[in-house]
Model the fold of this input.
Amino acid sequence: MTDTTIEAPATPRLKQFYKDSIIPELEKEFKYSNPMQVARVQKVVVSMGVGAAARDSKLIEGAVKDLTAITGQKPKITKAKKSVAQFHLREGQAIGAYVTLRGDRMWEFLDRLLTLALPRIRDFRGINGNQFDGNGNYNFGLTEQTMFLEINPDEVDHQRGMDITVVTSTKDDKEAQVLLKHLGFPFKEN
Done:
């Protein structure tokens, strides 16, 4: 007989940092009696609108390929709900794609975003800290996909921006901002 040991997959670095350092700090800061009251990141939604896909349907394939490479998960394609003649848009036509990340994949994406992608933005001074939605969720946009190392700049067919939404378990914007600041989000100083 052979002894085979199965190793558990490694815990993402940012998730371990959250468990070890951030939860105790937030417990002290907000005077929680229970660690389950501390705000958590529940999911991250990365979406890419491709308005030009109304004229050229191949552009949506490039967006799907880029989102798959960036997030490691196949995106869901969004379709137009109504026809709009001025935009040459037909009902049911593909106009965007999005990915919802949860669990370890979410933590690994946030780690890559904060440590590798955001510092690669030219003349980066931080992200706007006023883009909370009133329910503890943070939304921000990026102008191009080439800041991610998974995208080869030589193979980019079209420059596409993306919107990223970080959904937290708290309903308070201040508490969510403190959580994201502890995670390493580089907010601008106003």
